[in-house]
């Protein structure tokens, strides 16, 4: 699904990523953890093709294609979805309208017929109940005046409608209270499938109680310094990120045991 | 809807368009102006309403787009003479490239226009960092029983908004069109449906290549 080899990137003038290696296979959920400034969001941004993040070395392939050659919208149409850490407000643009345009772009790319308004609404209502979203959010401008929790819910709602093959969740848990966290995690879990992979970027272990990952990677100073199964997250919670400085860097190609059997959260 | 030749990229050879129109409303009558301005090198256009009769109503809905070196200076005059006259002004200016957009309007409430009301809303949208938007609302109120409101806003299409749309699968141009159409919604919904569709298309053609 996704193969990252020795990826290096700059954000502005600063070198942030210093050689990331990561392999994500279909159906797997990978958590990327790390202290502030370790490069988590830069990695997410580099994969999505965000302006201002310049890839300076290495490679990333997505479903066999050179990901870095593709425009951001081509990556999206191929099935790469980024749930934003800070969802952007677009005043005046109806939430449902953006989503319908996005869905039809994706469908066109897949060679499926475009959905008309009726079929679109049927799909949307099904997905909304998943996130326990208020109907009114559909007809409000994109993220405009949404609370922090509503914005994050809206991101996962878009994920549920667009049905990407690779979802990258960038600190989706930040700014969520415990109830909203459970709802959002429930939405994400409902989207787990053998064909869909997820990369969950988070600062805290808390989210991983609800979205149980198959693999956990720790990012520090722009490198993956440790990889393991879900128990690594627990270890981190106990010891903090400090103890990792003493450990030698290990290759990140996932060597952990698959935890599929135990991860039916 | 006016789409005169705007000239080349530097505005050379473009048409200058100067328009004044007035509508007079007698008792209980209504005059509505709806305009979509996309052309001309320079536009000066001020369709106005004389609200002479009691309870008459005046409306002005405008979308003006400037790209490259275009300049648009447009607005309306709402002259309230009769009692309980009402007027609404909604003006949307979109500036791209080196374009300059000006709203210039007068709301005059005469001595005898008791209970008159006006609401004005002027919104400007900037695309890029070399364009400009200007708003000159003139308000003259000659009695104490009238109510005049003016709201104005200026916003810019941000790179983060465009990236957000692209991450969802839209091209840059579709993203700009989506944001611009959302911005103009209040005016477009005053147009007949077929016409609104044409107006949207014209806008997207006028703004082609303005980003990226």
Say which CATH homologous superfamily of chain A is assigned.
P-loop containing nucleotide triphosphate hydrolases
What is the total tally of β strands of chain A? 12
Q: Which CATH architecture of chain A would you pick?
A: 3-Layer(aba) Sandwich
- Describe the global form of chain B: elongated
Q: How would the global form of chain A be characterised?
A: globular
Sheet with the most strands, sense and barrel status of chain B = 6 strands, parallel
Q: In oligomeric terms, what are we looking at? A: heterodimer
- Helical content of chain A (DSSP H or I, runs of 4+): 25-40%
Name the average pLDDT of chain A. 89
The side-by-side strand order for the widest beta sheet of chain A comes to 6-9-10-3-11-12
Low-confidence parts of chain A: 251-265
Please trace the helix and strand order of chain B, writing H or E for each element: EEEEEEEEEEEHHH
Order of helices and strands of chain A: EEEHEEHEEHHEHEHEHEEH
Question: Measured on Cα atoms, how large is the radius of gyration of chain B?
Answer: 18 Å
The CATH topology label of chain A is: Rossmann fold
Bin the strand percentage of chain A.
25-35%
Number of DSSP helices of chain B?
Answer: 3
Task: Detail the topology: elements first, then pairings.
The complex is a heterodimer of chains A (265) and B (212).
Chain A: E1 2-11, E2 14-24, E3 29-33, H1 40-48, E4 53-62, E5 65-66, H2 72-78, E6 80-83, E7 90-94, H3 95-110, H4 117-130, E8 141-142, H5 148-162, E9 166-170, H6 178-190, E10 197-202, H7 206-210, E11 215-220, E12 223-228, H8 231-239
Parallel strand pairs in A: 3-10, 3-11, 6-9, 9-10
Antiparallel strand pairs in A: 1-2, 1-4, 4-5, 7-8, 11-12
Helix pairs in contact in A: 5-6
Chain B: E1 16-25, E2 30-37, E3 42-51, E4 57-66, E5 71-74, E6 77-80, E7 86-95, E8 100-109, E9 117-126, E10 132-141, E11 147-156, H1 159-167, H2 172-188, H3 193-206
Parallel strand pairs in B: 1-3, 2-4, 3-5, 3-6, 4-7, 5-8, 6-8, 7-9, 8-10, 9-11
């Amino acid at each position: 699904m996704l193969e990252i080899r020795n990826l290096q990137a700059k954000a502005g003038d600063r070198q942030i990523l210093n050689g990331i290696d990561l392999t994500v296979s279909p159906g797997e959920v990978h958590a990327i953890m790390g202290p502030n400034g370790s490069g988590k969001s830069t990695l997410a941004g580099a994969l999505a093709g965000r302006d201002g993040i310049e890839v300076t070395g290495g490679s990333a392939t997505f479903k066999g294609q050179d990901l870095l050659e593709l425009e951001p919208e081509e990556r999206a149409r191929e099935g790469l979805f980024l749930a934003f850490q800070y969802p952007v407000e677009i005043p005046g643009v109806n939430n449902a309208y953006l989503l319908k345009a996005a869905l039809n772009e994706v469908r066109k790319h897949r060679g499926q017929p475009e959905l008309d308004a009726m079929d679109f609404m049927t799909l949307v209502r099904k997905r909304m109940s998943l996130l326990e979203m208020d109907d009114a959010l559909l007809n409000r401008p994109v993220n405009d005046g949404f609370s922090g929790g509503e914005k994050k819910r809206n991101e996962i709602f878009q994920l549920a409608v667009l049905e990407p093959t690779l979802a990258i969740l960038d600190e989706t848990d930040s700014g969520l209270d415990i109830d909203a966290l459970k709802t959002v995690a429930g939405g994400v879990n409902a989207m787990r499938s053998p064909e869909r992979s997820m990369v969950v970027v988070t600062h805290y272990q808390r989210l991983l109680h609800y979205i149980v990952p198959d693999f956990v990677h720790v990012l520090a100073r722009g490198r993956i310094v440790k990889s393991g199964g879900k128990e690594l997250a627990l270890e981190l919670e106990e010891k903090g990120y400090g103890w990792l400085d003493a450990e030698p860097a290990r290759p990140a190609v996932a060597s952990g045991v698959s935890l599929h059997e135990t991860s039916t959260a | 809807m006016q789409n005169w030749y705007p000239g080349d990229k530097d505005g050379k050879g473009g048409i200058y368009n100067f328009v004044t129109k007035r509508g007079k409303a007698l008792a209980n009558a209504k005059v509505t102006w709806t305009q979509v301005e996309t052309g001309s090198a320079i536009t000066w256009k001020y369709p106005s309403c004389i609200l002479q009769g009691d309870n008459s109503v005046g409306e002005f809905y405008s979308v003006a787009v400037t790209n490259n070196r275009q300049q648009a200076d447009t607005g309306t005059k709402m002259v309230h003479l009769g009692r309980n006259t009402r007027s609404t002004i909604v003006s949307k200016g979109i500036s791209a490239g080196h374009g300059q957009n000006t709203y210039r309007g007068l709301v005059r409430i005469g001595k005898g226009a008791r209970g008159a009301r006006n609401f004005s809303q002027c919104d400007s949208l900037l695309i890029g960092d070399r364009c400009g938007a200007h708003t000159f609302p003139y308000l003259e109120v000659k009695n104490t029983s009238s109510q005049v409101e003016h709201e104005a806003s200026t916003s810019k299409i941000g790179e983060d908004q465009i990236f957000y749309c692209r991450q969802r699968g839209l091209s840059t141009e579709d993203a700009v069109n989506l944001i611009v159409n959302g911005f103009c919604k209040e005016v477009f919904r005053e147009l007949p449906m077929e016409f609104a569709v044409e107006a949207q298309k014209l806008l997207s053609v006028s703004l082609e290549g303005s980003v990226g």
